[in-house]
Amino acid sequence: MxxxxxxxxxxxxxxxxxxxxxxxxxxxxxxxxxxxxxxRPMSPQPQHTLFHPKTRCFVYGLQARAVQGMLDFxxxxxxxxxxxxxxxxxxxxxxxxxxxxGTSETxxxxxxxxxxxxxxxxxxxxxxxxxxxxxxxQSTMELMEYPQIKSIAIIAEGVPERRARxxxxxxxxxxxxxxxxxxVGGIKPxxxxxxxxxxxxxxxxxxxxxxxxxxxxxxxxxxxxxELNNIIANxxxxxxxxxxxxxxxxxxxxxxxxMLRYQQDPDCKILVLLGEVGGVEEYRVIEAVKKGVITKxxxxxxxxxxxxxxxxxxxxxHAGSFANSQLETANMKxxxxxxxxxxxxxxxxxxxxxxxxxxDAEVNKGSIRPAAEPAVPKIPMDYNxxxxxxxxxxxxxxxxxxxxxRGQELLYAGIPITDVxxxxxxxxGVMSLLWFRRRLPSYAxxxxxxxxxxxxxxxxxxxxxxxxxxxxxxxxxxxxSLVAGxxxxxxxxxxxxxxxxxxxxxxYDKGLSPRDFVDTMRKENKLIPGIGHRVKSRNNPxxxxxxxxxxxxxxxxxxxxxxxxxxxxxxxTSKKDNLILNVDGxxxxxxxxxxxxxxxxxxxxxEQYLAxxxxxxxxxLGRSIGLIAHHLDQKRLRTSxxxxxxxxxxxxxxxxxxxxxxxxEGRVEVDVK
Amino acid sequence: MSxxxxxxxxxxxxxxxxxxxxxxxxxxxxxxQATHNPPAKxxxxxxxxxxxxxxxxxxAEATFPFLLVPGSKFVAKPDQLxxxxxxxxxxxxxxxxxxxxxxxxxxxNKVQKVEHVEGALRHFLVEPFVPHPxxxxxxxxxxxxxxxxxxxxxxxxxxxxxxxxxxxxxLLIPVDLSQYPSNEEIxxxxxxxxxxxxxxxxxxxxxxxxxxxxxxxxTYLEINPLVVIPNKxxxxxxxxxLDLAAKIDQTAEFECGSKWAIARSPAALGMPAIAEKTGKxxxxxxxxxxxxxxxxxxxxxxxxxxxxxxxxxxxSLKLTILNGKGRxxxxxAGGGASVVYADAIAAAGFASELANYxxxxxxxxxxxxxxxxRTVLDLMFRSPNTADGKxxxxxxxxxxxxxxxxxFKGVIRALREVAPLLIExxxxxxxxxxxxxxxxxLKNIKAVGKExxxxxxxxxxEMHVSGIVPLALIPGKMNSSIKEFEG
Lengths: 673, 487
Description:
The complex is a heterodimer.
Chain A (H helix, E strand, L loop, with lengths): L31 E2 L23 E4 L3 H13 L7 E5 L7 E6 L2 E8 L2 H7 L5 E4 L6 H8 L7 E4 L6 H14 L2 E3 L6 E3 L3 E2 L7 H6 L8 E5 L3 H13 L3 E6 L10 H10 L5 E7 L5 H9 L7 E6 L26 H10 L11 H15 L17 H6 L14 E2 L6 E2 L2 E2 H6 L3 H11 L5 H14 L7 H11 L4 H9 L9 H15 L3 H10 L19 H13 L4 H16 L7 H15 L5 H9 L2 H24 L36
Parallel strand pairs in A: 1-5, 2-3, 2-6, 3-5, 6-7, 7-8, 11-12, 11-13, 13-14
Antiparallel strand pairs in A: 4-5, 9-10, 9-12, 15-16, 16-17
Helix pairs in contact in A: 6-10, 13-14, 14-19, 14-23, 15-16, 15-23, 16-23, 17-21, 18-20, 19-21, 20-21
Chain B lengths: L2 E4 L1 H11 L24 E4 L6 H11 L10 E5 L13 E4 L1 H11 L3 E4 L2 E4 L2 E6 L8 E8 L3 E7 L9 H4 L1 E6 L8 H8 L8 H17 L2 E13 L6 E5 L2 E6 L3 H11 L37 H12 L3 E6 L6 E3 L4 H13 L8 E6 L4 H17 L7 E5 L9 H14 L1 H6 L2 E6 L5 H14 L3 E5 L8 H6 L14
Parallel strand pairs in B: 15-17, 17-18, 18-19
Antiparallel strand pairs in B: 1-13, 2-7, 3-4, 3-7, 5-6, 8-9, 8-11, 9-10, 11-12, 11-13, 14-16
Helix pairs in contact in B: 1-7, 10-11, 11-13
Pfam families (chain B): Citrate_bind (PF16114), Citrate_synth_N (PF24948)
Subcellular location (chain B): Cytoplasm
EC number (chain B): 2.3.3.8
């Protein structure tokens, strides 16, 4: 992988690099980059090369952020094609995933099984496996069945040790390099980045990982690999390759595997090893150095030196960081490495200085010739991140002022859901929060609940219930049946509430006496909405009306409109016994009393809510209970499709003089001459 | 999450239940036992701080009826991962239940010093005493390494077994179980010092023991002494695990959780069916596995609080109090960085003053960070206020994705709440952090330090991850040439 393999883009970093786009022929807003498959098989890489600037991989698991990070890295490294060939996601029904390639976009295929992915992309030899600790064993074993796969990075933490050992065993037999489990992965500057290694793009740019240096490192900890990137960038010409082998007790590959690769790779000049308390893998590197297999300078440190100084056993962050014997302690490792001729600092804080010294010596010897620094690439900032940093703003398309699900707790009009329950505000209280954005006094909440209870159902014969029943019997689902019923609600059915509120309010506000109101309506030949009942009368009162009236009279601070309506009733019932204030009228006027006189609403607000149809809302909400009940009832009874009997329909078709021929009876013929 | 020690009682229960059930890897020389083992007689008696000891013992009698069988003799011992209990006088042998009960009552909830560690005795195990001839005692140990599992076997068991690493016979069972040794190889590898007559019995037992080891995902198992008394025609044997220490792989919970649970269910332990007190539904047949803390490292209220918070989120929050009276406290982000900080503090000569080990990582929310920081700060103010004052490291590596500014908001909120105490306790605060948006985070914390008049030094990625530790602790290391974060 000579550096010339990295194409030099134009100075401004524009994506002029050999992609198969022809933007001119496409729509102006189509900013999608498409990548052609390689025209010929790639020439084989040397044995010691795990990743190179043409490495192509699959990401196993729908990890959009990690994939985007990899593509961004590829872009600033001026790769011609993205390192990710596709995503394998076994739960997916999705076929492509949209990603950014610089500022333009590209589509990555998403495969539901490995077999298809492998067949489609024979150039892929690496998998970044994001499967969970539960499923990673099975998926890794499956991936190793494909001979094209040469390396697999296992990100999951908490893989059972027995399974990790089995994976390592099979991998060794098949010659697959496993990185992990429990790792962030690794990075080859200028060539390939595994998953989330290196963190955000500004980290990567700060540590100059977009171009290769001369220092190869192997670290146990993924978190500390970031720190190593930083140290190496600050003290040398940069990272050549870095692998985090993972913090578990049995990583698939260990220090020695990668150190040997670095030794064989002529471009890697200095090796850095960051070990840890626990395990004995560092000793295999010591052995290799002692035997003269590794001859390049090794700067090393094992963290966890504190363990021996603590009184009791402490399990540090990593599963494997626990010393079972003297050999496994960090102190013993550090002294053994020093003895073997590694460059081991006195403390980890001194490591940068030691590394610098080793690097300067190599430069003086002429084995490292620092290359000229390329221009620092620019990477567009992600919208979300820019917003989090408060760098940008944009007008929102939607506004919500009643509920918020983003925080730790769901909020209803600013009140946390736990308080909603603690204070037992009930359905009425929740309605007042969500409909009116305020806490109404508890008598108001009770009143709302009362309305819901009273309007919940009115038997199967009314039009809404009928529609629901017929729809249910046609085999439709709950939502369709409910909606079929709800759609009948309007000025004739259920809509009396709105009309009543409007007429009574207008009359009252005009200062008409109840008798004047009734007279005016009669003159205009209008029925008074909310007055009259089919069977109930003054002597046979509607108990629902009585309940509401009594409640409101006893609990509302003011009920002027109800009093007015009751006076109107006195006028109307004197004409006909059944012209009583019915339940719709009663609820409507009481609700107006609530809006106007509870002190919780201004006059404008009250008008606004009425105009916006809040009364219909009450009816719809209440009656939904009943409509659902009718649907469930019909389902329970397993009623069949309803067909209305012919004899219940009067067929009255226009009849022509002289009945037509059979089949033509009743057709109206129009003479167009 | 890793290999964790378990109670002796739990280890024995798992062996007793699964020994006849776990599938053997290759056929053994003996036919499988016709019936499963009877319920294990293991009375695990647990005391909590402030418990009425006699009351707990009375309840134990009801839970474990075998304790009251007349004429029985028992062994009683604390079951808290204590090694060499016999030598510390923590073993009551060949006792009637009344004796054992008194012996436990005299020790329950009392602090005991074992070697150099002090801790309260809270968890006891009572089981039948097994008289047996000396020559039926063996030593067996299985432990896992990268290449496979080592079985160590020695023909003599007991406390005086000595250096088993040197003298026991060893056999490596490879990871690939298709390479499992034949019965002859097992005999050759492990039983060369055992009379031929009991070979079959022992091979059968070892194979079954190893099957349980694999099936229940042990990572370590030591039985010493193991007592194997063959029956007359040597077609089977009575096996007793007199003393057992084991670790299992906690990460295998999703594969083995149900096996661990059922072996420890009331039915498997011969408990009379007592109505569940709590009425709680557990996910398996039997209780979830418990992983006791090492002896003397009982979780404090604060540690338990952080552990509980940790369990409830995707973020990682860890806290271990090493020395509550220490002067050096840490509030470090990241698993690797937290170890590096502890190392650096020890290297500077302050290991004995290091008060806590812990870390927060994995993008905790501002609130979680606040509660974590508040907990550590509260503990810090409880340690004695000395003339030298205290040192608090607010450290961390270069974060990958955590928005440093937002996690620091939680830390800053905690600092604000306790600012007067920070001054009163003469706390030096040293800050080092980097990663996404660190500039904003460092600027904010620095501003708060100035505003509240705190003794604070702030550094960014130019400073080595734990570079602030020597600067803070070693006199003369900090000088004017070392630049702090400017903001």
